[in-house]
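Handoff note, outgoing to incoming analyst
You'll be picking up this chain. Sequence as last confirmed:
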Amino acid sequence: MRSPGEHMRKVLCAWVLTFAVGTVCFAVEYTVHIVEPTINDHLMMLDGPLPPVCKQGRTMKVRACRGEYEPASFVVTASKPLAAVQIEVAPVSGPGEPWPEAAIDVRVRRKFGASPILLVHDEGFLRTVPAPTQDNPDAVTYVPTGELRDADELQPVAIEKRKQFWVTVHVPETAKAGTYSTVLRIVPENNDATALTLEIEVYSFDLLEPMVEYSIYYPVRLASQVPPDDPLSFGNLTEQQYVAELKNMLAHGMSNPNIHEGCVTARPDGSLDFSVLARLLDLRESVGMRPEVLYIGGHPFPFYDGELTDAQRQRIHRYVREIDDWARRRGYSEVFYMGRDEWWGEQLLRERDSIMAVDEAGGKVFVAVMHPEFFDRVGDILHCPVLQSPVSRHVNAAFRKYLAKYGEMEAARRAAEIGGAGRFEVMIRNRRYRKAIDGAHRAGHKILTYMNPSAGVPYPDLQRRNEGLGLWRVGFDGTMTWAYTHNGGDKVNQFMYYAKVYRTENGVVDTVYWEGYREGVDDMRYLTTLYAELRSATGRFPDNPLIDETHAWLKAIDVVRGDLDAIRAEMARRIVALRDMGYKALPPEEILKGIDLERVRIIAFPEPWRFKMDADDQGVDEKWFDPATDDNTWGTLRTDVKDKGWGNDPGFGWYRTRLPLTRQEAGKTFACLYFEACDEDTWLYLNGEEIFEHSGETTGLLISEIWLTPFVVPLNDVTLRGEDLLAVRVYNSTGMGGVWKPVHLILSDQQLTEEHVEALVNLNQE
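Most recent structure output, in case you need it:
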């Protein structure tokens, strides 16, 4: 892999035949910053300094599996207004078949109401109209410029001061593993164009479905099923709209929304009408939504307030058995029936008899519970409590505190700190919540969570943590929050605090926190895949140290404060490493048959090496590889300390040392260097000349592979003088970087292969 600047120039040269790439002819009156990590809780203010997640650059990088959606983002800040800015996307290049144009989707962030951020193709499909009130003279309302629908692709954007763009990569299901790239051109009508490179690493493995359940409250009905005397409302959908929303849910990892209203009804003669439920399932199944269980709220019996009469109990028994039988014939193994919503305290005790009646008939109950005290009342019989999380309260309290202390603008700049107040730590450390969660599992029940945080709380990183790895860390079996869309407000000025998306006339518009939710689902898919590989590897190679080490690493993951992108990258690395354990190599003794070991020398490098970070990638231009370069002011770093490297700083780093080789030894028939591991891409210079490159570009290895792949550097084609200067340049994109395992010099008067060299090193270490 070349440096970001080198790679971008290479791509642009290849693309110039298709697009007229205008290099800057005069001072471009705008700057471009890459947002890393893309999912964060910072607000992009119109004025003032950008948050620390924004870094000036020209290369965006994503890593994903086949079929996965992965975001990237950049910010354009203009010193003078930019008119009609277009984002042109070049075809994706790389191994395998061409990608469809829709694989790269570009949107722009648009504020809506007090806090939600919409991701739109046409920021003008809604216009803002002043609507002052006595309490809020600055209040506004929204009016569509035409039909209430977004465009299908990004429209030209005016940038008065600053705009953030959102890129979603959808890796084709058929994509080959490897590194792909494309170029995005920022093309203002009144200024020069600027090019950004987007690099996409596609992993060699496929993701499994998550080990936890993803459901959500979905308060809608099909308009065709609404009685004539019931006027249509915001929640009554056409079948076309219903299908569009289901597809959007599936694309975000939402596999089983509950069925909220009137799906099974009792006819006057007492028989059950399944026609509505059947049609809903037809539509769900048509888009590939086929979960094992159903969560329904529209059943034909109530949960009674108090002890049941015999007639009431018999009614529940009969209907539960009929619905369960119908669902099993349809292919669904279980049905969960919704109890009294958000009852708590003594109310739950009065609902207990109804829950028991469902259980007696072989059915199961789910219900939202507002407090962990539910466990003391119905924890022994409630099959699926959906426990309200306190994180939204903590976030709201933090917001009020920051608002009072700092004022509106500064509180907004501290949004990431406010979002941090709602992480799962508040539940991990709470004795009452632990009792309820662990107690539900001991009773043989599953437990989900809601308001974790509220669906529309505008903190993407918080959504990702709490709806992703946080579920696993705390011990929840899934999530079912309120709601996909909320029925408050009108169809234009929608109440978004409880909504993941903004509903339009042809689908929905995503929000940034809905994208954060999807990343949380994907984190869980990586974790599920890693656990599956662990189980497989344990069965095949139970004594391999990588297995215990991976279990220890999993235990130590910091879901509350850890770098989730780095955690995911490490999960990918370990998945690949565990999969590769199936390779059975010959023992070193077998490989070295015919080699006289007495005529081989393995020389250890003197430690430590001289070392210097190169955050600005200036080392090549300043010739840090040249023997004449004074490195006495550099720091030192050992390369023979296993798992050391230079730490987690991304960017370039340089190592320098002298080959432990005399002039007499330089004349051996065979000489090479053996690097046990470098993280990630590596360039070697000997006496001022580049002699070797071990990178993703030269090897075809993925980042998830190259960091732990040893390599041999032949020295027979270079002139060795003794005490030769070796310089090693390493590029690291994420996680630990650098030379993190020993380096060896191999000498022999026999011809050796790379397989021989690796076997010699392994035998020497034994």
